[in-house]
Amino acid sequence: MAPDGNSEPLVPYSSQREPGGTEMTRRTNAKVAGFAFLLYIVASLTGDIVAGRASKGDGVAAKLASIAGHAFQMRAAILLTLLGCFCALVLAVTLYSITRDQDSDLALLVLICRTAEGVISALALPRMAGRLWLATGAGPGAPDAAAAKALGDYLFALPSWNTTVSAIFFAFGSLVFSWLLLRGRMVPIALSWIGLLASIVVVVGLPLELAGILEGSITQLMWLPMLAFEVPLGIWLIVKGAALPTGRSGTGSR
62: which residues sit within 8 A by CB, 6+ positions away? Predict the structure, then answer.
């Protein structure tokens, strides 16, 4: 009888690994996840700042003129956004690898949420590319003035819901991931608690933001606890890695 009450005995960790799996593989995944965390933060924040500065102005015409004069910055913002999407996919795989020995089902849920986050974020890229094309397009293929105005109104006036929806999947994945870290004691307990509480804040706040209930500066401030979690976590995973789980639920991989 297993200590947790299951009829199946717990199998030592060494026999839980897939053929050819080693502790070095786990440490490598932790390092990759750490770098992906930090790179994702830098790429996302820089991309948002660069895109905002490249498209500043009052009204659609002013924004398009600004993009035309800062085309390089807008292209850089597109590439940074794309980089962030790939970072989310890398995190989906590496975080699953780190946490699957604690609970394989919940680890798979984290993988799905982070994958959905990356895919939904990528849906914003055509809109960014469309703004750049509309601002810099010339020649026979360029839209006329009426079409350009209609397209500009669509590309700028319509709120960017993709970002919020993507962030909701991120928040839920982060909540489950932090819980697995806390249960498995894979990183310092205080850091796991910060991640858990920070995730709860955004899990509650983001749906309210999407529904138009939560507005203003609070929608930016609620991300500060998450920043205080992911930056130290990324550094910890690079330097120390993720410890083997101290315990497993009944759905852990065998």
Answer: none
Phi, psi of 185 (to 5 degrees): 50, 45
What are the b/e assignments for 56-84, b being 16+ CB within 10 Å? eeeebeebbebbbebeebbbbbbebbbbb
Do 207 and 169 touch, CB atoms closer than 8 A? no
Which run of H or of E encompasses 230?
helix 224-239
DSSP-assigned letter for residue 114: H
Q: What are the angstrom distances between the C-alpha of 109 and each of 94, 96, 102, 125, 237?
A: 13, 9, 13, 25, 21
Task: Mark out the alpha helices in 158-217 (DSSP H runs).
Answer: 161-184, 189-210
Q: Look at the chain and count its residues.
A: 254
Range of the domain at 220: 21-239
What is the DSSP-derived secondary structure letter of residue 159? -
What is 32-80 written as a DSSP string?
Answer: HHHHHHHHHHHHHHHHHHHHHHHT-SSSHHHHHHHHHHTHHHHHHHHHH
* Verdict on whether the full-model pTM lies above 0.90: no
Tell me how many domains the chain contains.
1
Q: Would you say the C-alpha torsion 210, 214, 217, 219 has a positive or negative sign?
A: negative
Kindly report, residue by residue over 154-211, the tens digit of the pLDDT: 777 766 778 899 999 999 999 999 999 999 999 999 999 999 999 999 999 999 999 9
Distance CA 33, CA 103 (A): 18
Residue 11: inside a domain: no
User: Is residue 12 situated within a structural domain?
Assistant: no
Residue 246 placed within a domain = no
Structure tokens at 217: 């500066």
- pLDDT tens track for 56-102: 888 888 888 899 899 999 999 999 999 999 999 999 999 999 999 99
